[in-house]
Each structure stands twice: as C-alpha cells, then as structure tokens.
C-alpha cells in the first residue's frame, strides 16, 4: 500500500488509514525513509521531531480528514510548542514557543502526523530558499541546479519529491504560489484573513501575509482550508463568510465565468516565451470548457504597489531583527543576519512613521483599484484574471542569494524579484484569492504554473475552477525523476 506513496494525495492516504490498509506509524516510517534517501540532495526538511510524532500517534490522533498522514510545517511562523524553529535565520535559530498558534491548533486537529519543518529564506522575503542557517541552498527536485522557489521552498521540494503528500506554507508576496509553480504543485492564497494569524501577530505585513498549503491535488487544499478557516479570537478583521465550504464547492463545476487573460506582465512587459505559451494553452482550455476568455490588462498602479510593498516588508523585517537582537543580547553582524536582511533593516531606517502609513494607504488604495477591475461601473469586469504565476521558469540557484546588501535592488532591480515574479504580490496587496495550477512545462522540462485570481471573498468559485481544470487536464502522474 506504500508503493505509490510519492504519487497519491493526502486524501487517498487518509482513506487507506481509515480502512486499515496502512497505519499512521507505517506512513511515518515511510516518510522518514524518504527524508533519509532524498533530503541530502534537496536540503528541504529540517528540525525533525520524530519522538513528538510517535508520541502523538501513541496518544491517539484526532478524527480529522487527514488522520495518520505525515505532514511538515514551514520553518517560519506556525508557532508550535513541540516544534522549535530557526525561522530561516541564524539570529533566530532554535526558537522555542510557549504556546501553539491558532493555525497549528487547527492543522493538528485534522489528524496529521507532524514530524518536522521545511526550509525557508531568512525573513521569508525571497523567491528562492537559500538560507545560511541550513548550510546550503534548497534545490528543486525537477532539476537540482534550479530553485524550488520561496519562501515556502522547502515545503514545495518536499511535496514534489514525495517526502510528504502535502505541507504547510505561507504567502506574503507569492510564497505559496511561487514554489507551487516551480515544483509542479497546487498552491492557493486565500482571501485576506481567511485563516487565523494569532496569537503571536495581529496581521502579517499590513495584512498581505497569510498561511496556506502546498498540495498535489486541489481537494487536499480544499479540505485543509475548510478545516482551518476562520479568524481566531481578537483578530482585527474577518474575511467574508464562506457560502458552503471549499470541498462542497469543488464537488461540481463553477458557473461559466468571464476570464481576462494576460500573456505579459500586468504592466505589459514581455515574459518568457514558454510562460506566455502556457498562458495561451490555459486560455484555450478554459474556452474549451465553455468559459468566456478575452485578453486584457488590469488597470491598477502595480509599480506603486510594489514600492509600497517593499517599504512595508522592510519595516516588518526590521522589527523582527531588532527584537531578536535585543532578546538574545546580540549585535547586528554578517554572522547573524544575511545581507538582504541587514539591508532591509537599513532601508527601514529611512522610512518614517508617516512614510509607513502612506505605504499602507497605498496598499489599501491599490486594493480598491483591483476591486474595480473585477467590478467596474459597466458591470462587465472579469470573474477571473489568468496569467503565468512567474515571468520565467524556475530560476537557477544563486540568482536570488541573500548575500546582496541592496534590499531595494533585490526586490525591484532589473531582472530581480519583481521582474521574476510580477503577478503574485498584486493579490497579496489586494487581499483577493489567487492560486497557481501546475499546467505548463518549459522546453527544459521545468514546471510552469498558471495563475488564477478572483474577486475578494470568491475563494469557493476560484477553487471550483481550479478543480475543473484539474479534472480536464490531470497532473497527478507528472513527477520529478529524482
């Protein structure tokens, strides 16, 4: 019952546990064997807590939808008493938590067997995962010379290669969708505040960051979102309520939708030909399914949003660094904080309180602009915006190294993060739901994700469309050779 462990999804494995065909302990042993066999080449799984996992099985697992299925937490956020974290940083290495986060409480209630964490870049601010604290880069199982993306890069690599069938991630500028695209997986960023942030933070990056999951199937994401959605007590704001739930939504095709497709960046800049071709292929698929597909560009100030995003994230990074330095009695140096983090701290020092509030105001104004794209005065806006997830296939290792001390250039310079990933952060800023669907492949055999976004609160319609595309163009059998 384990011969196809690296191919089937978590829902199928949970069904096998429920039927008695395989036990949680057997699945855990197999996942650990996969770590031993594959992780030395990938550097994706860190901080294993095998005794914690075995003790959870021995106590009896919750009767959730994924009872007995092995699972990994991203090594950034998702605070848990039993799972210390480096948070991608030497400064924060071996951080312990006094209580569990709300998102971890809900994940644990699904019945998963959590046994460790997955790598992330320092501060979660990169599109690659190459943090010094892990002793080397995390590599893409489709081609070890390329990145699995970031900041949930370790999660993407671990799921793609078959160490676990799904894993926790988080997304503040594409950090679930970028690894999904790079690794040939499904990844969805829900509507702002759909998932809980507490109690450690009220919101992440002025509301732009949210948790999520890297999965092999749409149904696994749907089930996890149903299990984990809803604000925790005291949250500063709530997402619009779901109508029926994600699992119910994917049980049938959505209504026929108006789709705006964009084969360039949202500012009209050209993207890699393989990515543009994948967008056209996805547009044809949606037309064949009966949706109404037309080309277009969203009218919104994307460059202004990206500048505001850069300032806000610098300030958030600076807050984390200064607090940790004070708590540990350390002085800022290259030995404890990488170049991008030190530069972000320096940039934050140029941003006044008024500047910060102006940046947040810009993000809020941008969200209203994007709302107007979906719901213009003439009522003829799209239901879905279709693009590539990234402007290029997965980048080579080292291109987005955190060694640079030019944080603004790292984010906004020619050929850097926002040129490489011009689509994802748009929907973190707007708060609208968005997903990467693994439909494309480059000429070199690397995955290319297709990006779909919907109006604020329309998570169920978006995930139903993703499920319809999965049924029409199944991707489950496409696996990396590693």
Automatic annotation (TrEMBL):
<comment type="similarity">
    <text>Belongs to the amidase family.</text>
</comment>
<dbReference type="InterPro" id="IPR000120">
    <property type="entry name" value="Amidase"/>
</dbReference>
<dbReference type="InterPro" id="IPR036928">
    <property type="entry name" value="AS_sf"/>
</dbReference>
<dbReference type="InterPro" id="IPR023631">
    <property type="entry name" value="Amidase_dom"/>
</dbReference>
<dbReference type="GO" id="GO:0003824">
    <property type="term" value="F:catalytic activity"/>
</dbReference>
<feature type="domain" description="Amidase">
    <location>
        <begin position="26"/>
        <end position="462"/>
    </location>
</feature>
<dbReference type="InterPro" id="IPR020556">
    <property type="entry name" value="Amidase_CS"/>
</dbReference>
<dbReference type="Pfam" id="PF01425">
    <property type="entry name" value="Amidase"/>
</dbReference>
<protein>
    <submittedName>
        <fullName>Amidase</fullName>
    </submittedName>
</protein>
